[in-house]
């Protein structure tokens, strides 16, 4: 194991360590689940579902909550700030949110071999997306691994052990409700051909400002359970 400080911004290093450890310790494993320690996972149901899916596709499994066309954060005060030197493009490749995802053993092996040759990025889930693109692996969206999906079997919950065991996952519920409300508001704006930035800061435009506030909160404060 590498000698590394256990901090959030070393998550990519820890993810690489996890791949190396799994490949060396459990070479016989054909499917591998990664998830954060604050996630409540219904392991039996999830294993059954993934096994059933794997019967049709034995290889190239790389599934989770898919992010598409996500732009890098370019403002220095952002938690996930990325410089142009670190990543010069305007959009990240498709990637799976790091909260919970599953890969098959062949994908894990390809990742492990590729890590030393692909430039490091401190955002672990984005880094895996970059590696996947280099390897011509296409991550797929899977609702049962999406914390805000009503069908999820793996949802963001709590670092509090009691809440985690009791599946008291207010964070996932709040995110789901906020995201649903934001989507409805954005649909409303799109139907009326309204651009967020093109309006006068006036009392009668408070609805537009509220929509912007929800969008900003979901994007910038996704670790907050109450707003």
TrEMBL record:
Gene3D superfamilies reported in the protein's UniProt record: 3.90.550.50
EC number(s) given by UniProt: 2.4.1.-
One Gene Ontology term from the biological process aspect of the record: protein O-linked glycosylation
Cellular component, GO, one term: Golgi membrane
Cited InterPro entries: Glyco_trans_31
Protein family per UniProt: Belongs to the glycosyltransferase 31 family.
The protein's name: Hexosyltransferase
Species this protein is from: Mizuhopecten yessoensis (Japanese scallop)
